Amino acid sequence: MSFDPHTIRAEFPILGREVHGKPLIYLDSAASAQKPRAVIQAMAGAMEHAYANVHRGIHSLANETTDAYEKARESARRLINAASAQEIVFTKGTTEAINLVASSFGQSLKAGDEIVLTQMEHHANIVPWHFLRERLGVVLRFAPVREDGSLDMEGFRRLLGPKTRMVAASHMSNVLGTINPVSEIVYEAHAAGALVLLDGAQAVVHAKVDVQALDVDFYAYSGHKLYGPTGIGVLYGKAERLAALPPYQGGGEMIGVVTEEAITYADPPHRFEAGTPPILEAIGLGAAIDWLDTLDRDAVAAHEHALYHRVKERLNGANWITEIGTAPGKGAIFSFAMEGAHAHDVAQILDRYGIAVRAGTHCAEPLMRRFGVTASARASFALYNTLEEADAFVEALNRTRTFFA
Ligand code: PLP
After folding, report:
1. Residues of the domain holding 174
2. Which of 27, 179, 297, 298 is deepest in the core (most CB within 10 A)?
């Protein structure tokens, strides 16, 4: 199978629009990716032809919608090679998936227990653990990040000990693009007797993930970064891990029996899906994954790397740009500071050229502090970006520089 970004682009209606009279160049896919027609049509089609609430119906539409919802769970399983669809819990996104684990697993923790994170975590994988520090006296430890943006594995190992109960780490950094050595992280954490949660919000878009090969306990990802809709994400949990977790929210669908005196709970994954779930969003996510499956994922990854390297090559070591995160094997994310310019100003000027990049802390304040910056600008590349766009980005950077030089 070959891969042609120009053909792919035609499947994304939004990419045909202009911004400030210029063709849109969308380099903000790490924040949220655009949607192909396959996803838009799957959601619209469900609303037009087969929609009702799931699981509780006897009538045909309820059954058809339930089938579509559960089919999406199977697609979500296949994406990460989970052993069973029962290990796939639909959540609102990565953030809710991590909150679910922190809240439910947290009930087994006590003061002095330790959670090991890394300095490159998104706030989604920091704040829920801080809740446990505030509420229970759990101790948070942050594995250090090296100057090139790679994880200091020696430093990580030093933090593991008999009190470590959970290691929660990003598979791929949303700022640095670093892809962490997750097999090693899981192996070391398990050897120390801890469970492991991986934040796959970025990694799942760019790499093939196999949760069984990784032997990871929990894995979280979001639909909207994966060319699917917002409002849907996945928590994968090994069957025995999910079975051991108490419920997260209470309501319909997550119960066994409810009386005035007592309740029993449903088995996973329904135990963790209280209330009417994001039905249309799940169907959209399933469509996104099925659509991705029609592509050669290795060729897509190679294309994304080519975009990143094209930018580096065209910048040709420009001393007025400092890249943050240069770890070997990193993903197609280019975070940078421009000499003399604030990241917000850079992003605003690039917008005038029709180029969308993100600027700010990227929800990773500890990491910003680690690198001694208050903000960075970030261009993130996706399968629909072209080499011509990479060149236009570098040209716009050169022009932007003239405002500050
Ligand atoms: N983790 C990482 C690495 C991310 O990049 C993001 C989103 O930017 C999140 C977690 C949070 O994902 P969401 O906002 O979809 O819950």
Report:
1. 41-292
2. 27
